[in-house]
Every structure is written in structure tokens, then in C-alpha cells.
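Propose amino acids for all 99 sites.
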């Protein structure tokens, strides 16, 4: 919503994701994690910190013997890559990851 925090849709979306930090969607799990990371990081940093701890644990639990993370219908490369992008907010390497 491009930092348009005055929109009612922004407020409703923020409320929904903050209230559902422990949940995951049944479809497109990795895609959802990536955008959840972005949304929380931009809208509610304290909630992002809590959710990020959950994400780190989930990714660690999904590590495969070959170093990849989980798997998806798009393959291990996708699930690994997008998991790393969701975790990349911890390092603030890209301008898009700035607050």
C-alpha cells in the first residue's frame, strides 16, 4: 500500500497479520512468508521481531541434508531462495528492506 498508512485497508491488513503471527496459509507458504516479512517489517516492527523468531525456527526445522530449505511444487531452489529473501530483512542489505 506504498506507505499509505491512512487507508482503512492498510489498518485492516496490519491488524489481521499482527493478530495471526503464528499462522501460516495452506497454499503458497513460502510466498506468504516473504510478503509477511515485508508487511510486518514496514508496518509493525515489534511484531516483525516476534514473527521473525518464529520464521527462523521454521526455516531451521525445514533444512534438508543438502542445505536446501523445505520444498514446494516449484522445487527446492524456489523454497530455499524465497526463505532466504524473507530472512534477508535481518541484514538490511537492499534499499527495499529499509524502514
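Proposal:
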Amino acid at each position: 500500500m506504498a506507505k499509505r498508512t491512512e487507508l482503512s485497508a492498510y489498518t485492516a491488513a496490519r491488524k489481521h497479520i499482527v493478530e495471526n503471527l503464528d499462522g501460516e496459509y495452506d497454499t503458497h507458504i513460502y510466498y506468504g512468508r516473504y510478503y509477511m516479512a515485508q508487511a510486518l517489517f514496514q508496518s509493525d516492527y515489534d511484531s516483525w521481531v516476534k514473527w521473525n523468531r518464529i520464521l527462523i525456527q521454521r526455516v531451521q526445522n525445514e533444512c534438508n541434508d543438502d542445505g536446501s530449505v523445505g520444498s514446494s511444487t516449484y522445487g527446492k531452489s524456489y523454497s530455499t531462495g524465497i526463505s532466504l529473501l524473507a530472512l534477508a530483512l535481518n541484514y538490511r542489505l537492499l534499499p527495499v528492506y529499509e524502514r
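The chain has one domain: 25-97. The CA atoms of residues 27 and 68 lie 20 Å apart.
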